[in-house]
Amino acid sequence: MRGKRVDGASGRGKPIEVRLNGQPVEAYEGETVLALLILHGERAGAPERGPFCNMGVCHDCLVTLSHSDQAHPREARACLTAATDGMSVFIGPGGRR
Amino acid sequence: MTNEATTYDAAIVGAGPAGLAAARELSSRGARVVILDEQARPGGQIMRQRPAEFAEDGWLSGGLYRKLKALLREVESLRELDWSMSTTVLGVADADGDEGFVLTAVRADESLTFRAKTVLCCNGCYERPAVFPGAVKPGVMGAGAVQTLLKSQKIVAGDAIFFAGAHPFQLLVAAQIAQAGGRIAGVAFAQSRLRVLSILKEPWLLVSHWRVFATAFGNLVRLRRAGVPLYFGYAMKEAIGANRVETVILQPVDSGGRARTRAPTKRVDADLLAMSYAFEASSELARQVGAQSRWSELSGGWVATHSQLMESSVPGLFVAGEVTGVAGADASLVEGCLAGLGMAVALGSIDAEEAARCAAPHRRRLRNLLRFAQYLARLAAVPAQLFETMAGASAVVCRCEGVTRADIAEALAGNAQISTANSLKLFTRAGMGLCQGRLCYANAAAQMAAQRGARVETLGPFQAQWPARPVSIASLIAAGDEDCVASRTTKIRKPCR
Fold first, then answer.
1. In a shared domain, residues B201 and B252
2. What is the Cα gyration radius of chain A?
3. What is the pLDDT of residue B13?
4. Mean pLDDT, to the nearest integer, of B65-90?
5. Which secondary-structure segment (H or E) carries B451?
6. Spatial CB neighbours of A43, under 8 Å, sequence gap ≥ 6
7. Who among A7, A30, A56 is closest to B53 (CB)?
């Protein structure tokens, strides 16, 4: 873990099921995928980069997302994407280009 | 969903203070308005809202935000506005044969098209990263990123956070993190303590902007009380760590930003380095349409030029907020009011005389705010040699493509024909990556200017092209009209001044 949730789970949405590289992680409705990456010490994007801007500019938080109700996985900037129940987030090779 | 059938009176790109103020002005005059923004909720970076699922308790408390929040809530409650949030605008182009503009955009992976008689580009600014060894390592973020993670996601993004920069903004973020229970490993300013305190030499500013200073002073006191080490006259030398930042090394610098080689460096352990050296105006969307820009060293690089009522050099295309020069949220709000009036004139809903009358108080207030912003910009200005001092030869300039200082130096030395920032991009790939040169332009151009003995303004910006953000081919094809995509691509390319 890196950093922390202020006030823990309180004031957040309902707990949801999200997998990060196949592993279930603690997550709440409204949290962005980037927040989960940070809390779980994952860096996304290219191997030697971490997210820089949290506002959609740097693209160093690109992840691949799949969801049971979607036909194809899609790439997205983690900072602009809300985690949703049942989402799987993949980073590392294949997560970027 | 596409809104191709509707022609809006105004499309506003950016739901920050400028966009909200313009929307209020236009809406009150009966205009049909759509606001587009990449974020899920309006407010801009200054008022990055919590997600709807979170409780709002204590969100942006404090007097500095009061007026902005009032504007946000008022505009959110306007029923006649259309919102297109979580929407990335890819381009703005003249509508062929028709009056007005066509905006192309994506939401999730869905292509969208909007038509509007007038467009306001008020898409803000972003942080300029500094170049130093280790600056692209995981665990180095912009101070703004650390702040938005706190205010919007209620997350303290590191266990021990070190701030390094030249902008007073980092004090605010550090204080907010400390208040939220995060540990601040230290705050380093490149300027001397005396320079930071030189604010006291301008008493009129203290009076007119007392609230800002009271907040800054309060932040300093709070950090001091919390035992946070403050460093003045220190720049980043290196961020080191195996896989991510573990330790930051600070270099003492003089008032010109040159290394004081005999003074000892300092090492501080931290797992997150937040940097705050400067901001860059996000003028690329306006420039893509052909809006003229000028170089402003202290206010964010290439900034869009405009008339008194914020119309750019392209008739019907308006600009407001940080896009016209980084000057803060209050100035952005006022510019948004002016842009709203200018757009109302362009739409024929008011005449020029009435607009001038309504604009007068805004213009007075803007003059005052811009004077303060200029003063703050001078205070926060990065000392002349600082970026040069921090950058080692192996340091990465272009994060996306991994182009180093040495790569750029070599390309420039080997080819005298490279005379513009664009040609440097073609030869080195700096600026060709996913961020499309937003994060490397200032550093690459500064290095080139130094090596060529030229001024940055003679090198020009990176050309702003469609799409303004990377987009998947699939989502464009899914729009079902490949010819349309092709024609947009060619139509939008215009000489960029």
1. yes
2. 13
3. 98
4. 96
5. helix B441-452
6. A37, A49, A50, A51, A91, B138, B244
7. A30
B183 and A CB contact within 8 Å: no
Tell me the chain A residues in contact with residue B129 when contact means C-beta distances shorter than 8 Å.
Answer: 52
Instruction: Kindly state the average pLDDT of the residues B128-153.
Output: 96
Q: What domains are there in chain A, each with its CATH number?
A: 18-90 (3.10.20.30)
The answer to whether position B331 is within a domain reads yes
Which of B276, B298, B319 is at the close of a domain? B276
Q: Which residues of B touch A58 (CB under 8 A)?
A: 399, 435, 438-439
- Window 2-41 of B: residues touching A by CB (8 A cutoff) are 38-40
Residue range B66-88: mean pLDDT, rounded:
96
Tell me the average pLDDT across A38-49: 78
- Rounded mean pLDDT of B398-422? 96
Q: How many CB atoms lie within 10 A of CB B413?
A: 10
Cis amide prior to B168 (ω within 30 degrees): no
What proportions of chain B, in percent to the nearest 5, are helix, strand and coil? 40, 25, 40
Q: Which amino acid is at B358?
A: C
Asked if B145 lies within 8 A of A53 by C-beta distance, the reply is yes
Structural domain count, chain B: 3
- B117 and B37: one domain? yes
- Domain range for B446: 393-464
Mean pLDDT of B270-289: 96
> Band of the pLDDT at A47, cuts 50, 70, 90?
low
Alpha-carbon Rg for chain B, nearest whole angstrom, is 23
Mutate to test the interface with A, among B48, B132, B154 (most CBs of A within 10 A): B154
Work out the pLDDT band at B488, boundaries 50, 70, 90.
Answer: very low
Residue B361 included in any domain? no
Residue of A nearest to B128 (CA): A53
What number of C-beta contacts closer than 8 Å exist between A and B?
Answer: 132
CATH number of the domain within which B428 lies: 1.10.10
Chain B residue closest in CA terms to A97: B434
| Contact assignment for A28 to B53 by CB distance below 8 Å | yes
| Assigned domain for B362 exists | no
Residue reference for tokens 């903004």: B169
Nearest CB to B439 within list A57, A80, A82: A57
